[in-house]
Design goal:
Number of helices: 6
Structural class: mainly alpha
Order of helices and strands: HHHHHH
Distance between the termini: 44 Å
Length: 207
């Protein structure tokens, strides 16, 4: 499982010809790293100097760790469900009946495989909101890590966005397409928020 294997083992599997893990899992791990970075900065926002905001920072750290775990789960689910999608594509298609059954299996598996991508969008968006709350009160000596979190979240959102767009193109059900389109809209919006946050940190650092 992604949450328990070594980084090297994960990267070697990612680099192989295996259908999973792939971009979806990688995007979720970007979100997990973003959450971890936010937690780290919040943990450093402690002690007498930050007495007035320490409780707030502790709450941010706790929520960020929760988001990190949710992102790890999304990565594992993406790998599992994409494996099922690959299995559906491998179904026989020699007869018309088999072709129809295969099309239905692929459609169902494609819809299911979109769920971890939507979760990644939600987690990454939540992490960006936490980073926005943390930046004004956080330990300035690690403010660059807030920008690093924003960039990791932006990578997660961009990855989920393009993968969801591919899924939408393959799904026939209009209601499902509209639901996933809302997630892509959310991803695009939050990518802009992440870019703004990075720009704010860079401006403060260079001032």
């Amino acid at each position: 499982m992604i949450s328990t294997e070594t980084v090297t083992n994960y990267l070697e599997r990612l680099a192989s010809r295996a259908p999973a893990p792939g971009g979806g899992a990688a995007g979720a791990l970007h979100a997990a790293q973003a959450a971890a970075l936010v937690s780290m900065v919040a943990e450093f926002t402690s002690g007498p100097r930050y007495a007035e905001v320490q409780a707030q920072a502790a709450g941010i750290a706790e929520e960020a760790k929760k988001q990190m775990r949710e992102a790890l789960f999304a990565a594992q689910e993406d790998e599992r469900l994409f494996g099922l999608l690959s299995t559906a594509y491998a179904l026989p298609k020699d007869t018309e009946e088999q072709k129809a059954s295969r099309r239905e299996a692929i459609n169902r598996a494609t819809i299911d495989a979109a769920a971890p991508l939507v979760a990644t969008v939600e987690v990454a968006s939540g992490v960006i909101r936490l980073a926005q709350e943390l930046l004004p009160i956080g330990n300035r000596s690690v403010s660059s890590d807030v920008a690093a979190a924003a960039e990791a979240a932006r990578a997660a959102l961009g990855t989920a966005l393009v993968t969801l767009e591919m899924n939408i193109a393959a799904i026939k059900d209009q209601a499902q397409r509209e639901q996933l389109s809302r997630a892509t809209g959310r991803a695009a919006e939050m990518i802009g928020e992440a870019e703004t946050m990075t720009a704010s940190v860079r401006s403060a650092v260079s001032a």
